[in-house]
Amino acid sequence: MKPFVLLATRAEDVPADEEYALFLRYTGLSETELIRVRLEAGAMPRFALDDLSGIFVGGGPFNASDPADRKSTVQRRVEAEFAALLGDVVERDFPFLGACYGVGTVGTHLGATIDRTHSEPISVVPVTLTDAGAADPLLEGLPPAFGAFVGHKEAISSLPAPAVLLASSPRCPVQMFRVGHNVYATQFHPELDVDGITTRIHAYADHGYFATDELELTLAAVRSAPVSHPSRILRTFVERYAR
Protein backbone atom coordinates (compact mmCIF):
# COMPACT_ATOMS: atom_id res chain seq x y z
CA MET A 1 0.00 0.00 0.00
CA LYS A 2 1.19 3.50 -0.76
CA PRO A 3 1.49 5.52 2.47
CA PHE A 4 -0.71 8.30 3.74
CA VAL A 5 0.82 11.50 5.12
CA LEU A 6 -0.17 13.49 8.22
CA LEU A 7 0.82 17.15 8.00
CA ALA A 8 1.06 18.52 11.55
CA THR A 9 1.77 21.99 12.94
CA ARG A 10 1.77 21.58 16.73
CA ALA A 11 5.01 22.78 18.31
CA GLU A 12 4.32 21.18 21.71
CA ASP A 13 5.60 17.60 21.78
CA VAL A 14 2.96 16.05 24.07
CA PRO A 15 -0.17 17.09 22.10
CA ALA A 16 1.71 16.63 18.82
CA ASP A 17 2.67 13.05 19.67
CA GLU A 18 -0.81 12.27 20.97
CA GLU A 19 -2.38 13.69 17.80
CA TYR A 20 -0.27 11.29 15.73
CA ALA A 21 -1.18 8.39 18.03
CA LEU A 22 -4.87 9.22 17.65
CA PHE A 23 -4.64 9.34 13.86
CA LEU A 24 -2.86 5.97 13.92
CA ARG A 25 -5.51 4.48 16.20
CA TYR A 26 -8.56 5.66 14.33
CA THR A 27 -7.24 5.20 10.80
CA GLY A 28 -5.94 1.73 11.64
CA LEU A 29 -2.64 2.56 9.95
CA SER A 30 0.86 1.70 11.14
CA GLU A 31 3.69 4.23 11.47
CA THR A 32 5.10 3.10 8.13
CA GLU A 33 1.68 3.56 6.52
CA LEU A 34 1.06 7.04 8.00
CA ILE A 35 4.09 9.30 7.67
CA ARG A 36 4.05 12.30 9.99
CA VAL A 37 5.59 15.61 8.89
CA ARG A 38 5.88 18.30 11.58
CA LEU A 39 5.71 21.47 9.54
CA GLU A 40 6.48 23.75 12.48
CA ALA A 41 9.90 22.08 12.65
CA GLY A 42 10.92 22.36 9.01
CA ALA A 43 9.92 22.85 5.41
CA MET A 44 7.23 20.71 3.79
CA PRO A 45 8.78 18.02 1.59
CA ARG A 46 8.03 18.06 -2.12
CA PHE A 47 5.45 15.29 -2.41
CA ALA A 48 4.95 13.17 -5.48
CA LEU A 49 1.21 12.63 -5.16
CA ASP A 50 1.39 9.50 -7.30
CA ASP A 51 3.46 7.90 -4.52
CA LEU A 52 0.81 8.55 -1.83
CA SER A 53 -2.64 7.19 -1.02
CA GLY A 54 -3.85 10.41 0.60
CA ILE A 55 -3.08 13.36 2.86
CA PHE A 56 -4.37 14.20 6.34
CA VAL A 57 -3.94 17.56 8.06
CA GLY A 58 -4.15 17.87 11.83
CA GLY A 59 -5.19 20.87 13.87
CA GLY A 60 -2.88 23.53 15.17
CA PRO A 61 -2.35 26.99 16.61
CA PHE A 62 -2.40 29.00 13.37
CA ASN A 63 -5.33 31.26 12.50
CA ALA A 64 -5.67 31.99 8.80
CA SER A 65 -7.68 35.15 9.50
CA ASP A 66 -4.99 36.84 11.61
CA PRO A 67 -3.45 39.94 10.02
CA ALA A 68 -0.21 39.21 8.17
CA ASP A 69 1.86 41.32 10.57
CA ARG A 70 0.69 39.14 13.48
CA LYS A 71 1.69 35.88 11.82
CA SER A 72 5.03 34.33 12.69
CA THR A 73 7.66 33.56 10.07
CA VAL A 74 6.84 29.87 10.53
CA GLN A 75 3.13 30.42 9.94
CA ARG A 76 3.74 32.44 6.79
CA ARG A 77 6.04 29.69 5.47
CA VAL A 78 3.53 26.95 6.28
CA GLU A 79 0.71 28.88 4.61
CA ALA A 80 2.79 29.36 1.46
CA GLU A 81 3.60 25.64 1.41
CA PHE A 82 -0.06 24.71 1.78
CA ALA A 83 -1.01 27.10 -1.01
CA ALA A 84 1.37 25.32 -3.38
CA LEU A 85 0.32 21.84 -2.25
CA LEU A 86 -3.40 22.55 -2.48
CA GLY A 87 -2.99 23.90 -5.97
CA ASP A 88 -1.97 20.39 -7.01
CA VAL A 89 -4.38 18.58 -4.67
CA VAL A 90 -7.47 20.47 -5.81
CA GLU A 91 -6.52 20.39 -9.49
CA ARG A 92 -6.04 16.62 -9.37
CA ASP A 93 -8.90 16.05 -6.91
CA PHE A 94 -6.41 14.10 -4.80
CA PRO A 95 -7.62 12.47 -1.54
CA PHE A 96 -7.20 15.03 1.25
CA LEU A 97 -8.81 15.36 4.68
CA GLY A 98 -8.01 18.38 6.81
CA ALA A 99 -9.22 18.39 10.42
CA CYS A 100 -9.82 21.84 11.94
CA TYR A 101 -6.79 23.55 10.34
CA GLY A 102 -7.99 21.94 7.14
CA VAL A 103 -10.79 24.50 7.10
CA GLY A 104 -8.23 27.30 7.27
CA THR A 105 -5.99 25.83 4.58
CA VAL A 106 -8.58 24.63 2.07
CA GLY A 107 -10.90 27.54 2.84
CA THR A 108 -8.14 30.06 2.18
CA HIS A 109 -7.24 28.30 -1.07
CA LEU A 110 -10.85 28.58 -2.24
CA GLY A 111 -11.17 32.22 -1.23
CA ALA A 112 -13.71 31.49 1.50
CA THR A 113 -14.52 34.14 4.09
CA ILE A 114 -12.75 33.09 7.29
CA ASP A 115 -13.26 35.17 10.41
CA ARG A 116 -14.21 34.95 14.09
CA THR A 117 -17.97 35.21 13.59
CA HIS A 118 -18.61 31.50 14.19
CA SER A 119 -15.94 30.52 16.70
CA GLU A 120 -16.82 27.75 19.18
CA PRO A 121 -15.42 27.17 22.67
CA ILE A 122 -13.81 23.84 23.47
CA SER A 123 -16.79 21.58 23.93
CA VAL A 124 -18.99 18.88 22.42
CA VAL A 125 -21.46 20.19 19.82
CA PRO A 126 -24.23 18.51 17.83
CA VAL A 127 -23.20 18.22 14.18
CA THR A 128 -25.97 17.71 11.62
CA LEU A 129 -25.44 16.35 8.12
CA THR A 130 -26.87 18.19 5.14
CA ASP A 131 -28.60 16.20 2.40
CA ALA A 132 -25.30 16.22 0.50
CA GLY A 133 -23.50 15.00 3.62
CA ALA A 134 -25.95 12.15 4.14
CA ALA A 135 -25.28 11.05 0.57
CA ASP A 136 -21.49 11.44 0.71
CA PRO A 137 -19.57 8.12 0.71
CA LEU A 138 -17.06 9.36 3.30
CA LEU A 139 -19.90 9.84 5.80
CA GLU A 140 -21.61 6.55 5.09
CA GLY A 141 -22.81 4.89 8.28
CA LEU A 142 -22.93 8.06 10.36
CA PRO A 143 -26.24 9.10 11.91
CA PRO A 144 -27.93 12.31 10.66
CA ALA A 145 -26.72 14.10 13.81
CA PHE A 146 -23.84 13.24 16.16
CA GLY A 147 -21.67 14.80 18.84
CA ALA A 148 -18.20 16.06 17.96
CA PHE A 149 -15.33 17.81 19.72
CA VAL A 150 -14.65 21.42 18.68
CA GLY A 151 -12.60 24.37 19.86
CA HIS A 152 -11.65 27.08 17.38
CA LYS A 153 -11.23 30.84 17.25
CA GLU A 154 -12.15 31.21 13.58
CA ALA A 155 -14.40 29.50 11.05
CA ILE A 156 -15.78 29.88 7.54
CA SER A 157 -18.68 32.31 7.43
CA SER A 158 -19.14 32.22 3.66
CA LEU A 159 -18.42 29.12 1.59
CA PRO A 160 -17.64 29.65 -2.12
CA ALA A 161 -19.64 27.92 -4.83
CA PRO A 162 -17.11 25.16 -5.73
CA ALA A 163 -17.45 23.70 -2.24
CA VAL A 164 -20.31 21.45 -1.12
CA LEU A 165 -21.53 21.87 2.46
CA LEU A 166 -21.72 18.51 4.24
CA ALA A 167 -22.37 19.33 7.90
CA SER A 168 -23.26 22.18 10.25
CA SER A 169 -23.68 22.91 13.95
CA PRO A 170 -25.95 25.47 15.64
CA ARG A 171 -23.17 27.98 16.23
CA CYS A 172 -20.95 27.17 13.23
CA PRO A 173 -22.71 26.75 9.87
CA VAL A 174 -19.69 25.21 8.09
CA GLN A 175 -18.58 22.14 10.02
CA MET A 176 -17.56 20.07 7.00
CA PHE A 177 -17.33 20.56 3.25
CA ARG A 178 -16.05 18.86 0.13
CA VAL A 179 -14.32 20.17 -2.98
CA GLY A 180 -14.57 18.02 -6.09
CA HIS A 181 -15.05 14.38 -5.12
CA ASN A 182 -12.09 13.72 -2.85
CA VAL A 183 -10.95 16.88 -1.01
CA TYR A 184 -12.51 17.28 2.45
CA ALA A 185 -12.20 19.61 5.41
CA THR A 186 -13.81 19.48 8.84
CA GLN A 187 -14.07 22.16 11.51
CA PHE A 188 -14.65 19.52 14.19
CA HIS A 189 -11.93 17.05 15.22
CA PRO A 190 -12.68 13.51 13.97
CA GLU A 191 -9.44 12.22 15.51
CA LEU A 192 -10.17 13.20 19.11
CA ASP A 193 -11.40 11.18 22.06
CA VAL A 194 -11.91 12.40 25.64
CA ASP A 195 -8.33 11.67 26.69
CA GLY A 196 -6.96 13.42 23.62
CA ILE A 197 -8.96 16.60 24.06
CA THR A 198 -8.13 16.63 27.78
CA THR A 199 -4.44 16.65 26.87
CA ARG A 200 -5.00 19.59 24.54
CA ILE A 201 -7.01 21.54 27.11
CA HIS A 202 -4.08 21.37 29.51
CA ALA A 203 -1.48 22.01 26.81
CA TYR A 204 -3.23 25.11 25.44
CA ALA A 205 -4.65 26.49 28.68
CA ASP A 206 -2.88 29.82 28.11
CA HIS A 207 -3.61 30.14 24.38
CA GLY A 208 -6.85 32.08 24.70
CA TYR A 209 -9.36 29.29 24.09
CA PHE A 210 -10.87 29.85 27.53
CA ALA A 211 -10.32 32.14 30.50
CA THR A 212 -7.71 31.18 33.07
CA ASP A 213 -10.40 30.42 35.66
CA GLU A 214 -12.43 28.21 33.29
CA LEU A 215 -10.19 25.15 33.16
CA GLU A 216 -12.51 22.90 35.15
CA LEU A 217 -15.58 24.15 33.27
CA THR A 218 -13.86 23.35 29.98
CA LEU A 219 -12.86 19.88 31.14
CA ALA A 220 -16.48 19.29 32.18
CA ALA A 221 -17.78 20.56 28.83
CA VAL A 222 -15.94 17.87 26.85
CA ARG A 223 -17.52 15.21 29.05
CA SER A 224 -21.02 16.59 28.70
CA ALA A 225 -22.09 14.23 25.90
CA PRO A 226 -20.75 11.03 24.33
CA VAL A 227 -18.60 11.32 21.20
CA SER A 228 -18.17 8.11 19.24
CA HIS A 229 -19.07 8.64 15.59
CA PRO A 230 -16.61 11.17 14.06
CA SER A 231 -13.57 8.88 14.19
CA ARG A 232 -15.31 6.58 11.71
CA ILE A 233 -14.57 9.24 9.08
CA LEU A 234 -10.84 8.55 9.36
CA ARG A 235 -11.21 4.80 8.90
CA THR A 236 -13.58 5.27 5.97
CA PHE A 237 -11.11 7.67 4.33
CA VAL A 238 -8.41 5.01 4.51
CA GLU A 239 -10.73 2.25 3.30
CA ARG A 240 -11.83 4.38 0.39
CA TYR A 241 -8.44 5.66 -0.77
CA ALA A 242 -5.75 3.12 0.19
CA ARG A 243 -4.01 2.00 -2.98
Total number of helical segments? Answer: 7
Strand content: 15-25%
Do you know the CATH topology? Rossmann fold
Mean residue pLDDT = 96
Q: Kindly report how far apart the N and C termini lie.
A: 5 Å
CATH top level label: Alpha Beta
Protein name: Glutamine amidotransferase
GO cellular component, one term: cytosol
GO molecular function, one term: transferase activity
Keywords: Glutamine amidotransferase, Transferase
Give a quick summary of the entry.
This protein has 243 residues and is of the alpha/beta class. It has helices at 13-27, 73-92, 101-110, 131-135, 194-203, 215-221, 232-241; strands spanning 4-8, 34-38, 54-57, 96-99, 113-115, 120-129, 145-152, 155-158, 163-168, 176-179, 183-186. The strands form two sheets. It has a nine-stranded mixed sheet with strand order 2-1-3-4-11-10-9-6-7, sandwiched between helices. Strands 5-8 form a two-stranded antiparallel ribbon.
Describe the structure.
- Helix content is 32%, strand content 23%.
- The chain is an alpha/beta fold and 243 residues long.
- The chain has one domain (4-241): Rossmann fold, CATH 3.40.50.880.
- Strands 2-1-3-4-11-10-9-6-7 form a nine-stranded mixed β-sheet, with helices on both faces. Strands 5-8 form a two-stranded antiparallel sheet.
- Helix 1 runs antiparallel to helix 5 (194-203) and helix 2 crosses helix 3 (101-110).
- The protein is globular and about 50 Å long.
- Keywords: Glutamine amidotransferase, Transferase.
- This is Glutamine amidotransferase.
- GO terms for molecular function: transferase activity.
- Residues 49-192 form the Glutamine amidotransferase domain.
